[in-house]
Design a protein that fits this description.
It comes from Paenibacillus herberti. Helix content is about 20%, strand content about 35%. With about 350 residues, it is α+β, with helices and mostly antiparallel strands. The strands form six sheets. Strands 11, 14, 15, 20 and 21 form a five-stranded mixed β-sheet that branches. It has a four-stranded mixed β-sheet with strand order 6-3-9-10. A four-stranded antiparallel β-sheet has the order 5-4-7-8.
Length: about 350
């Protein structure tokens, strides 16, 4: 028996919703693409229900007639070839039901006959706009609508954490306009990530454990501005400003790694002094000529326990011999060079 087109479109919409949720943390851009496809599939479903009839679980009342001709073009019913996303390659098994060559979609001429095909769940639709060239529909999705909005919110947001690398400073708190929580970190520690809207934010930094915290928030606060892009995780590092002895904020984009046989790592130089190299003890060099206040690119390694030596850039003058550090699988990390005296510290980024 042929599959009912309402049933087929419903399965596609459900798949898009599932994939949007799956990619929410792995790749927010792909997640947003699937959320958009889910929305479009629900619009097509509204048209198909009108053209082919309501399954028994749908309300029995017949909606006002739609302008079906606006939806009969093949562009409204794209083929799998037009979706460049995972799971929708040209050899996809999705059933395509656009009009074949020389054929046209049937046009409803009277009341819709209830269909014997059962949907997974009921949804209601109503048209919100109609013009001579097309129409749009507003789906009432309930909890699925909330999930789609959450997906869109995360895809349009950045994530940020605080790294405290300022010697002599107590635990610090950073408040970011547009973030849902403040960020708090002790010396040589990083806070958890918090979500923030993309764009330029004014931030305020003050001692968290000061007895004058309230006064610090209003009278003696240190203000900075940060520009955040959507879909990116950031580390904002607090360090001593070599120019005036105060504090400065440095912003770095973080990466992640999900494959079990890989690990990513970078060097973040937040100590005073000149550029440095990092090499595996009795082995090769991992990072070269990393200047103070900067970070190297990430490199990909196999998970391992490494003994590292940090030297002056371009020489063998040893500045720090690090205790063995374990780089865990399926993760990204930052080798922080900082502290008093400066040493290497591993901070996980994912």
């Amino acid at each position: 028996m042929d599959r009912h087109p309402v049933w087929t479109e419903w399965q596609k919409a459900s798949q898009y919703s599932m994939l949007a949720g799956y990619y929410r943390e792995l790749d927010p851009v792909i997640s947003l693409s699937y959320a958009t496809l889910h929305q479009e599939a629900m619009q097509r479903l509204a048209v198909l229900v009108h053209m082919y009839g309501y399954p028994p679980e749908y309300p029995s009342s017949v909606p006002a007639a739609y302008n079906e001709s606006a939806f009969l073009g093949s562009s409204f019913f794209p083929t799998a070839d037009s979706f460049p996303l995972p799971g929708l390659e040209p050899d996809s098994q999705w059933v395509q039901y656009g009009p074949s060559a020389g054929a046209s979609w049937p046009v409803s001429t009277g009341p819709l006959t209830p269909s014997s095909w059962q949907p997974i769940q009921s949804y209601d639709f109503f048209p919100v706009a109609s013009t001579g060239s097309g129409a749009s529909f507003q789906p009432l999705l309930g909890r699925d609508k909330d999930k789609a909005e959450a997906n869109n919110s995360e895809a349009a947001s950045a994530f940020i954490r605080l790294l405290h690398a300022a010697p002599g400073q107590p635990e610090l708190e950073l408040r970011l306009e547009g973030a849902y929580d403040s960020l708090t970190a002790a010396f040589l520690k990083a806070s958890p990530y918090v979500q923030a809207h993309q764009g330029v934010h004014r931030v305020q930094l003050f001692p968290e454990d000061s007895v004058l915290a309230e006064a610090a928030k209003t009278d003696a606060e240190t203000a900075f501005e940060l520009n955040l892009e959507a879909g990116i995780r950031y580390t904002v590092a607090v360090t001593a400003d070599p120019q005036d002895g105060g504090l400065q904020l440095l912003l770095f984009a973080d990466e992640s790694e999900s494959q079990e046989d890989r690990t990513k790592v970078r060097l973040l130089h937040l100590a005073t002094g000149g550029p440095v190299d990092v090499m595996v003890r009795n082995g090769g060099t991992l990072f070269r000529n990393v200047a103070s206040g900067s970070a190297s690119p990430y490199i990909t390694l196999s998970p391992a326990q490494l003994s590292l030596d940090l030297t002056e850039a371009g020489s063998l003058r040893l500045l720090h011999a690090c205790e063995p550090l374990r780089l865990p699988a399926a993760s990204a990390g930052t080798l922080l060079y900082g502290g008093t005296p400066p040493k290497l510290h591993l901070i996980l980024d994912s």
